[in-house]
Specification:
The protein has about 475 residues and is α+β, with helices and mostly antiparallel strands. Helix content is about 35%, strand content about 20%. Among the domains are: about 110 residues, no CATH class; about 120 residues, no CATH class. The strands form three sheets. It has an eleven-stranded mixed β-sheet, with helices on both faces. Strands 1-2-3 form a three-stranded parallel β-sheet. Helix 4 crosses helix 9 and helix 5 packs across helix 9. The two termini are about 35 Å apart.
Length: about 475
């Protein structure tokens, strides 16, 4: 609907005291003349077009609007409310249309960097970091066996790995100069795609400088220990495995609406099953877990869920989601046909030591089911993983099976003082804003972070050309 006609509509509604029925009739006439918006009183979905579809209904508590058919619900408490609702939703869709038009134009003109989507046939793996992960895991395990630190073993392992990327390859590896020359020759430092071409067999010939690794483990343990000294969590309860968390072989099974932990070799029986409970939790509780124990140490939660052993007070797995707050993620979702205001970013998942092996994929599936049933406006969810450190299997098997974006990965560490001694602590972009000090960055080449998407509903808009074939690439 043109702006002049829409303004005339607003002015007439403002001065007219007509009933809701007459309002709907007026808007229907405007729709026939201008083909701009659809407003219906009771049966949304009759109009098949790209513009906003609005439903005028009473405000019935506990009854959610079916957004598969209508985009928004306008409560006709007054003419002013109807007028404001029409203006708000029309403006919102105008913004979305403009964003999509700009994205399509930039994609067509090749102003947006894109890469062909990863598939299961060419899933990204990092031969150098795969080798490093194996070697570092052994040293961390040996350190823990000797010192029995009260910390999460994954946290210590990942902090150590991140820290080691800030050391040049020639120093980090025994015979590292030869390895460094190989990486230069292969172009691993200049283009991440060349990392995929590295020869695992050749890289496997090089061991790590164990003293450098041990120094990094000790440094990062001191940082973790310092952080946990002010934690409000019951660390003994969470970090010292007991019960099913001290035994191997447990898996999570969902059947007939029930969630249980069952020994894998008897997974088809309910004998000795341990009942579990999945529910929404306070975001403050999720923030405590993710700030103190998750290896990113930057909590982000507008919505959080926990998985509990039935009748136990503390969750053994905690997942958090946050509304989309980055422009590049809004563009990714618009590219795929979604309204970012109706989407979430799955930001953090933490599971205590000893949890069943399929906990992560189970948490994803349970969260998606809960959102469909209790937050029906939710359209899609993004989340990310770092292929230099993980395979992403738990995410893909949990429903995150659409790679939609890649972004460069480089770790940053800020110098901090603990007991008067300098240490380097890992920092995210969000945490960096509040910190000062000398900064060091990754020097080992790394694959980009991959953003994955799962859709809870079909896209409201038609995905833009290339959405099925390409990932957006941001810098």
């Amino acid at each position: 609907m043109g702006s002049i006609i829409f303004e005339a509509l607003v002015q007439q509604l403002e001065s007219d005291s007509m009933t809701i029925g007459r309002i709907i009739n007026f808007v229907s006439q405007q729709l026939k003349l201008n083909n701009g918006i659809a407003v219906e009183q009771s049966s949304p979905g009759q109009f098949d077009f790209e513009g906003p579809r609005m439903l005028l209904t009473e405000d019935v508590e506990g009854v959610a609007i079916d957004k598969k058919k209508a985009d928004s619900n306008i409560i006709p408490t007054s003419n002013r409310a109807v007028r404001f609702g029409l203006l708000r939703e029309s403006t919102r869709f105008a913004q979305m249309d403009y964003q999509r038009q700009q994205l399509e134009e930039k994609f067509t003109n090749r102003e947006i960097q894109v890469s062909p989507k990863f598939t299961f046939d060419n899933w990204p793996t990092d031969p150098l970091m795969t080798h490093m992960r194996q070697l570092v895991a052994r040293r961390v395990t040996a350190y823990e066996s000797k010192h029995h630190p009260l910390c999460d073993d994954k946290d210590l392992k990942y902090q150590t790995l991140f820290r080691l990327t800030t050391i040049d390859v020639a120093t980090l590896f025994d015979g590292g100069q030869e390895l460094n020359e190989y990486l230069i020759q292969m172009g691993a430092y200049t283009n991440w795609r060349n990392i995929l071409r590295l020869d695992p067999q050749f890289i496997g010939n090089f061991g790590l400088n164990e003293q450098v690794v041990d120094d990094a483990i000790e440094e990062q343990h001191r940082i973790i220990k310092h952080r946990l000294e002010s934690s409000s969590l019951d660390l003994e309860e969470i970090l010292r495995p007991k019960g099913i968390f001290s035994e191997a072989g447990w898996v999570i099974q969902r059947r007939n609406g029930a969630i249980n932990a069952i020994q894998e070799d008897t997974a088809n029986a309910f004998f000795d099953a341990v009942p579990l409970e999945f529910r929404e939790i306070e975001t403050e509780q999720a923030a405590a877990y993710h700030r103190d124990l998750h290896y990113i140490h930057t909590p982000r939660a507008d919505l959080a869920f926990g998985l509990f052993v039935q009748d136990e007070e503390l969750p053994f797995s905690v997942v958090a989601l946050e509304k989309i707050d980055r422009d590049y993620k809004r563009n990714v979702l618009a590219f795929q046909g979604y309204d970012s205001r109706e989407c979430y970013d799955l930001t953090r998942l933490y599971s205590k030591p000893g949890t069943p092996g399929n906990t992560s994929s189970s948490m994803f599936a349970l969260a998606f089911q809960h959102l469909r049933e209790n937050y029906p406006d939710t359209q899609a969810i993004l989340s990310s993983f770092m292929p230099s450190y993980a395979t992403g299997v738990s995410m893909t098997s949990g429903g995150f099976n659409n790679p939609v974006m890649i972004k460069p990965l480089s770790h940053r560490f800020v110098e901090t003082s603990i007991n008067g001694e300098p240490h380097y602590e890992h920092m995210t972009n969000r945490r960096m804003k509040a910190r000062e000090g000398k900064v060091i960055r990754s020097r080992v080449p790394l694959l980009p972070t991959v953003e994955l998407m799962t859709n809870l509903r079909p896209p409201r808009h038609k995905p833009l050309p290339g959405a099925d074939e390409f990932m957006l690439e941001t810098y």
